[in-house]
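Case study 2.
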Amino acid sequence: MEIYTHQQIDRELCGEPVEMADGYCLVRLAATASMVTDNSGLIHGGFVFGAADYAAMLAVNHPNVVLGAANVKFLNPVQVNDTIVAEAQIQQTEGKKRLVSVTVWRDEEKVFEGEFTCFVPDRHVLSPS
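Prediction:
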């Protein structure tokens, strides 16, 4: 499936799409030393959120898609050298609004879950009025 959104994103920071279908995406992210917050090897939650957000954007897969809101839970920590997988699925479509559920796993353990409210405006958010 062709990707129509977030084409210039840094996949080392946000993940690599490994499976896509209409309204669905799976993104894999390898947690690296550049994501570490402290001497324990804890990965900053922003990288986990970034992978989840990227998966949600790809599930919608429209050039103008933007995130409007997110209701998320961080369930377990992620450490350096972990590989996580973010699975996103559109749950509801109402006009320009898409509700996307995202679950992030490390192996069989759930580390993050959330609902992302995405919008597909008629033009890019940075386009002049």
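The chain has one domain: 11-119.
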